[in-house]
Amino acid sequence: MNTPSGSAAGVDVRASDEELGRIDQYWRAANYLSVGQIYLLDNPLLRQPLTVEQVKPRLLGHWGTTPGLNFVYAHLNRLIRARDLDMIYICGPGHGGPGMVANTYLEGSYSEIYPDISPDAEGMRKLFRQFSFPGGIPSHAAPETPGSIHEGGELGYALAHAFGAAFDNPDLIVACVVGDGEAETGALAASWHSNKFLNPARDGAVLPILHLNGYKIANPTLLGRMAESDLRSLFVGYGYEPLFVEGSDPEAMHRLMADTLDVAANRIRAIQAAARQAQGATDLPRWPMIVLRSPKGWTGPKEVDGQKVEGFWRAHQVPLSKVRENPEHLRLLEAWMRSYRPETLFDESGRLRPDLAELAPSGARRMGANPNANGGLLRRELRLPDFRDHALAVPKPGATQGEATRAMGTYLRDVMTLNAEARNFRIVGPDETASNRLDAVFEATDRVWMEPIEPYDVHLARDGRVMEVLSEHLCQGWLEGYLLTGRHGLFSCYEAFIHIVDSMVNQHAKWLKVSRGLGWRRPIASLNYLLTSHVWRQDHNGFSHQDPGFVDLVVNKKADIVRVYLPPDANCLLWVTDHCLRTYDRINVIVAGKQPAPQWLGIEAAVAHCEAGIGLWRWASNDDGREPDVVMACAGDVPTLETLAAVDLLRQHLPELKVRVVNVVDLMTLQTREEHPHGLADRDFDSLFTADKPVIFAYHGYPQLIHRLTYRRTNHANLHVRGYREEGTTTTPFDMVVLNGLDRFSLATMAIERVPGLNATAAHVKQAFREALIAHKAYIRDTGEDMPEIQQWAWPHGTAD
Amino acid sequence: MNTPSGSAAGVDVRASDEELGRIDQYWRAANYLSVGQIYLLDNPLLRQPLTVEQVKPRLLGHWGTTPGLNFVYAHLNRLIRARDLDMIYICGPGHGGPGMVANTYLEGSYSEIYPDISPDAEGMRKLFRQFSFPGGIPSHAAPETPGSIHEGGELGYALAHAFGAAFDNPDLIVACVVGDGEAETGALAASWHSNKFLNPARDGAVLPILHLNGYKIANPTLLGRMAESDLRSLFVGYGYEPLFVEGSDPEAMHRLMADTLDVAANRIRAIQAAARQAQGATDLPRWPMIVLRSPKGWTGPKEVDGQKVEGFWRAHQVPLSKVRENPEHLRLLEAWMRSYRPETLFDESGRLRPDLAELAPSGARRMGANPNANGGLLRRELRLPDFRDHALAVPKPGATQGEATRAMGTYLRDVMTLNAEARNFRIVGPDETASNRLDAVFEATDRVWMEPIEPYDVHLARDGRVMEVLSEHLCQGWLEGYLLTGRHGLFSCYEAFIHIVDSMVNQHAKWLKVSRGLGWRRPIASLNYLLTSHVWRQDHNGFSHQDPGFVDLVVNKKADIVRVYLPPDANCLLWVTDHCLRTYDRINVIVAGKQPAPQWLGIEAAVAHCEAGIGLWRWASNDDGREPDVVMACAGDVPTLETLAAVDLLRQHLPELKVRVVNVVDLMTLQTREEHPHGLADRDFDSLFTADKPVIFAYHGYPQLIHRLTYRRTNHANLHVRGYREEGTTTTPFDMVVLNGLDRFSLATMAIERVPGLNATAAHVKQAFREALIAHKAYIRDTGEDMPEIQQWAWPHGTAD
């Protein structure tokens, strides 16, 4: 269909037929090694006839996508060498692990990282054996795979990762193979639009290679069966120039692929040159992408047991599944592997023939050794401003109002400025940077936008460093790719809708856990979330926008990976933000509101409080450092407000009651030290929460989480938690806490009911609280607003410290 | 751009200019009512000059998208009347709640459901007041909104819902407005491909209307700024015929919209007629879709405070935000509202002028009264086979092996057959029906596939009732749409990847909770999940495919909405499946493995066990009905296997130890009755788990969940839970449980350590268990397989019942 020519297109590096012949051999070597990994325990070079004992007892792996991945790898190697490109390979069809391993083994990067898997027959034996084998390696591209920044488990994120890697990486080209199965996912379908955020003057390039092998596990693929004209229209519509490489004859395909890659590389170079010459005054270019249509299980068995395999979904996993049981399968396997003529590819020692080995790039140009795929190697610490410069003055607790995220915004503005030159910090979010009140960052940068910009647009620019798109998947995928290649960032999101990326967070947490166990993978910057517009302040959005459960998901992950912070006010949020930006290999979740709210702690008090993660607020307590009658605990900005208002009620109405206030910033302090490194020692926990006094705990999210974190603590039986219990609607802020029993009156009532002896004597106080709630309900029904005394309540007790 | 003509295209129903004039008035009435809802407390018809007191104190709502939605609604009304169409309206830009409410009010369906909101001045006053007001209605389209099956909170699912509604609904046309913000989401980007699953002979039609108003909260939209040629290519690529309606002059736009809708309706009719004449032998047709480009905030204030509003993102929410504070804003609001000339639209009583009212369809043809949008009205019970006919024979516990999902498959096959005529049952899943061993259903039906079918394809057909696509979002969205319009279904999914739809599940749970509180919404069939290919059997996929945390998400929802079942074997799975298909208004999660595993209960024992949801397994216990020394509890198939093997070990090595086995099928039984309707009474719980004996609980998922569910129980302090603790890799089945401490040896050791007095005396037994684990580890490293005695272990104790 295309008859592209590298030389015609600008650079005279067209592959010779001789070179393509060797590339074919290289490809055969990779295919051979891939099949070997799936099947063999021993006899790696087939120097003896294959026996049943040499075949793995459990055949676990995916052949179908692998030859195509190998084909791409071999041709990218040529492109890199011919043009000295800085390139990484993102393998969307992650099941093709055998291929990525085979290629990094062939190019030598694998053995450098894993010397035990040496480039000889013994190393090859171990290479085969370890694959999908206990104590070995997974069957997917994974952290263990050199050159990978993309776990191939859950499909859909390859292209977003690729773009994330390319941002602010002007010399990098990210080749990204997208499987036609993966292409059906939502995240991937949206990811094609990432081109609209990539600036050719400043960023690197992404070369998407849509690999149409036509089938998933047991079905054709949608894109594989699409009319070719529709396919072309679709990618033109997405803004690309699709280049088609289609066929099954290796010789013709090698020529077509090599020439097409030359065209693509020339196009990329031309786009970049024009944009860079224009000094950023560039419009959205039409980037090339490749549609590679090749048979599933290419070069594998055509038929097995009389059924079509090559070019069909039966090639997806192991085309021959009964090798140990069925001699015919064993024979077919041996014939298949010998069809690659291993004796012509590897020398006596089992090493790849030198004239083939030279087809791979060398050193850090090898895709398995490119430092961009081990981003910790490139990571530089951020330059951070002094967060104290952004502190709100809090002369007296609760006396001033402030918007926590607005203070954070000025801090982030300075982070932007300080790292503008390093170009290694970005903020992503779904169209909410301003509405989440981080808009001070727009004093330092803009939103990046490559489509037309109108004169009346606000804070849109080609070189903006804030990325807004109404797709949490893209935000997450871009940021992951950005972090994994050694940079830093923050994802600001509506709390309820961060659940959209739950599964991506799971995968990233797993990646971090495994990476931490690999000495050669260097730490990357943490994945930082600001969850705002949270459950308690959805006054006009209502029930559908109320979900604080992301924290629950996160705490299921490995303890050393996750941190959850609930700063009660702006100064605490500043400390937490600064802290999170300094950490690595973690997932940090910060939950903080954007609405005006009372401020509790001056900056030095905030620092001390946040460093401890949890603390007794002496100024709010009246237990004078002795054993209290009741502990009022809180975590989260709104629960803190309601708790302090409840304490105020108690102190007004029952001044003899000794109340202690404990505030939790770092949720992980609640767990025992055995469970989490931030866990408070039991002695300290008991000292804060007492061994036997009632504890009324007001928590931001689902109350059961607090029980789950504390069930091992001494005083757990006396812990009474209030939080979000899925009651919500369009209503006032105070009515929301009332609906969920988290309001000051309910908390104070709980305290009264739980303190022995108090319940009866304080019946009149409880009655007064009940009446106050009823009166308030009536008031808001009439006016649509909370009572002024609720809206304007302020902590009246001064500071005791 | 288009100059379509209804009459030219086939049906002579072209709108007259006079009719279009009245439609313009109808549209103005809807816009007027929309603005009124956002702003006014009183003076609904503006019969007096507007005062500050008549304006809401908190202005909460979204104007921007609303006039476009109203425009569409008015024109769909004409189309319905002219052609007597059965049509519902899915409003993707859910923020446009005021528009949907306004239109259902104008057509009368609103007042029929909510008589208090009467069609007169007093009703209009209440209509305005209730909007986004405490005690009132949400600002989005929501369950409270007549005619809606789609909550407008979280964006992305409109089109998938629309297709779900259209499947098996041959007479229905689902008009689906997709906002250009929503169009950026992953789920929506994938949803366009739903056309490849819609059979024009059997299914209804979806008419997507992409509403390009160009802006989100604070940004342009990607699709809104795309070159028109790319936009056209994109939708041609997706397989549609895009029809463009673009402009801002109402008169021209009315003509263009009316004529374009005629074209679209004629195309739909022609496609359906051809397909139905061909008796199903139809190929994928090119369905029409409409691109409607109109100004954001159309007909609202052009400028406010000197800044561009109409046609810009500033129109997104309330264009005039300081009406109470700023007299100029008040003046602008009044002028804006009066520009619709309410006195010409509503009569003396405040009722819509009769010649305008007649523009709406009548009765059930009104989109707010169409029973498809209140699917419970149409829901028929499924015809269900006798699940006992699919039972596995289990003469003795543990003696036979069986694949649980395979048995379920034959049951589902019969469900398919029995309801083939009713056409109200579908199975959705991401390409895994066969790999999850439900393939018996293919004896009764096929996978639906509208793209080309090759001779060698397997179980693909135009009229298949199994829907496979590699997008969990589409599976979920389609099924929700199908259920919400009164049908039944099952979603079969890899356990780990169901997290992809976490946020959709949240929204559906919220929808069900609110719907249950509305008398007029009839119950719909439950959303049923089969989660298989679960965490314990990911031998070759490894760590990235291991996540049992969906259950944790689900139990955060309202107790009366959710059920979680962990059937330990095939017969229990049969009961659970049958049970779930009989329920309504719930989310049922079934977790069950697909691999061959020992079978424990005959069908009658399974029925008794599952009906109770939890039970003492006497045949596995040796406590003879008396107080045991230790309770070995389990939930999930693999934990049950390991628990019984542990009990076997204990009985062999410590025959004097009295062991009780408790198995949990219905996870909700663990909660107290106050927390969940299925919760076991405390007395019964204590009787099962004892008041003070150690309980070793082997659980399928994250262990903390069991603590969370049981922390209120008497014996909680003695409960020791093992489950998945994020340890996993590519390894054998038994090694997986070993890695997580859930294996038989570890469980038996825990029991020994927890039974007072036993720990010291049984030291040799513990030592033997330790050595067994070490030996096993060595064995699998050598062979890649579990030891034969592990693989072949069978319960040796016969049945005691």
How would you describe the overall organization of this protein?
Two copies of one chain form a homodimer. With 801 residues, chain A is α/β, with parallel strands linked by helices. Chain A has three domains: 17-373, Rossmann fold (3-Layer(aba) Sandwich); 387-597, Thiamin diphosphate (ThDP)-binding fold, Pyr/PP domains (Rossmann fold, 3-Layer(aba) Sandwich), CATH 3.40.50.970; 614-791, Rossmann fold (3-Layer(aba) Sandwich). Chain A is 36% helix and 13% strand. In chain A, the strands form six sheets. A six-stranded parallel beta sheet of chain A has the order 12-9-13-14-16-15, with helices on both faces. A five-stranded parallel beta sheet of chain A has the order 1-2-3-5-4, sandwiched between helices. In chain A, α1 (17-39) packs across α2 and α1 (17-39) packs across α5 (121-130). Residues 1-10 of chain A have low confidence and may be disordered. Chains A and B meet through α7, α8, α13, α14 and α20 of A and α7, α8, α13, α14 and α20 of B.
Topology readout:
The structure is a homodimer of 801-residue chains.
Chain A: H1 17-39, H2 66-83, E1 86-91, H3 97-107, H4 109-113, H5 121-130, H6 158-166, E2 172-179, H7 186-191, E3 205-212, H8 228-237, E4 241-246, H9 250-277, E5 288-293, E6 303-304, E7 307-308, H10 327-338, H11 354-357, E8 401-403, H12 404-418, E9 425-429, E10 447-448, E11 460-461, E12 466-468, H13 472-484, E13 488-494, H14 502-516, E14 527-532, H15 550-555, E15 562-565, H16 570-582, E16 587-591, E17 596-598, H17 603-612, E18 614-616, E19 630-635, H18 637-653, E20 659-664, H19 682-689, E21 695-699, H20 704-710, E22 719-722, H21 733-739, H22 744-754, H23 758-761, H24 763-783, H25 788-791
Parallel strand pairs in A: 1-2, 2-3, 3-5, 4-5, 9-12, 9-13, 10-11, 13-14, 14-16, 15-16, 19-20, 19-21, 21-22
Antiparallel strand pairs in A: 6-7, 8-17, 18-20
Helix pairs in contact in A: 1-2, 1-3, 1-5, 1-9, 2-3, 2-9, 6-13, 12-16, 16-17, 18-22, 22-24
Domain Xylulose 5-phosphate/Fructose 6-phosphate phosphoketolase C-terminal (chains A, B): 594-795
Protein name (chains A, B): Probable phosphoketolase
Cofactor (chains A, B): thiamine diphosphate
